[in-house]
Amino acid sequence: AGNWKEAFDGYKQRLTDPKTDPAALPTDLRLAVQCLQRLGRVDELDGLVDAAAKLHADNSQLLRAAAHAFRDAWHH
């Protein structure tokens, strides 16, 4: 429905919660990045990805998603 801000807020909360299901985190990160892009807030991408990667450093799938997020990010 185009509620990108609300969606992003939900994904950010999940990504910064140590109790979030580890299997869901890579998708949550991908969708959070998509929300930031739609909102024109790509300047927040680095901080979000860094925080998620540090909190969930033992989750190799999330770390892979983080690497993809950095690789695929808009570089202006």
Describe what this molecule looks like in 3D.
- With 76 residues, the chain is mostly helical.
- Helix content is 67%, strand content 0%.
- The protein is built from four helices and no strands.
- It has helices at 4-15, 25-39, 45-55, 60-72.
- Helix 2 (25-39) packs parallel to helix 4 and helix 3 (45-55) packs antiparallel against helix 4.
- The chain is globular, with a radius of gyration of 11 Å.
- It starts with a helix and ends with a helix.
- The model has no long low-confidence stretch (mean pLDDT 93).
What's the overall average pLDDT, rounded? Answer: 93
The helix count comes to: 4
Uncertain segments are none
Distance between the termini: 28 Å
Total beta strands:
0
Global geometry: globular
| Structural class by sheet pairing and helices | mainly alpha
Q: Main traits of this protein?
A:
mainly alpha, 67% helix, 76 residues
Concise account of the structure shown:
By secondary structure, this protein is an all-alpha fold. The protein is built from four helices and no strands.
What's the structural blueprint in terms of helices and strands?
Elements: H1 4-15, H2 25-39, H3 45-55, H4 60-72
Helix pairs in contact: 1-2, 2-4, 3-4
